[in-house]
Amino acid sequence: MNKVICAGGVIVKTVDNTPKILLVYFRDDPYRGETTFPKGHLEEGESEEQAALREVVEETGLQNPQIVRKLGVITRLSKEDTGKKVLKEIHLFLMRTDDFIHGEAEERYGWFSYEEASEKLSFQQENDFFKKIWPEIVK
């Protein structure tokens, strides 16, 4: 089985005293579609950090994200657009931005509370990772 390397970001903002996390969702419905962290494959010659920043901007339109630190790596099985099964290694970085301005986005995105995100994240490995890191990223 082939392995693919992906990178993405974890971004939190506070809305009405409630921390919310930025997630992307597919199939036009955040309740029935696939919901995940903004992330994607590394391009030729790109570092994990560069890919993570590029993917967050492309998928969510979030302007000027900056990496704070690496949070960890999730490994899970996945199916590529071609239908081929791969082992996906996802490097996730805590990011911040000063203004939370969104430009044009490739994907649908939303800001979700802890409870909403833990119900919506589509992949068990990502949900387990999210629950583990949440206390440290909202302090």
State the CATH class: Alpha Beta
Round the Cα radius of gyration to an integer and report it: 14 Å
Low-confidence stretches: none
Structural class from helices and strands?
A: alpha+beta
Number of helices: 3
Helicity range: 10-25%
CATH superfamily: Nucleoside Triphosphate Pyrophosphohydrolase
Number of strands: 7
> Major beta sheet, specifics?
7 strands, mixed
Question: Beta-sheet strand percentage?
Answer: 35-45%
* CATH fold category name: Nucleoside Triphosphate Pyrophosphohydrolase
Number of domains: 1
Gross geometry: globular
SSE sequence, one letter per element: EEEEHEEEHH
Describe this structure in words.
This protein is α+β, with helices and mostly antiparallel strands and about 140 residues long. It is built from three helices and seven strands. Strands 1, 2, 3, 4, 5, 6 and 7 form a seven-stranded mixed sheet that branches. It starts with a strand and ends with a helix.
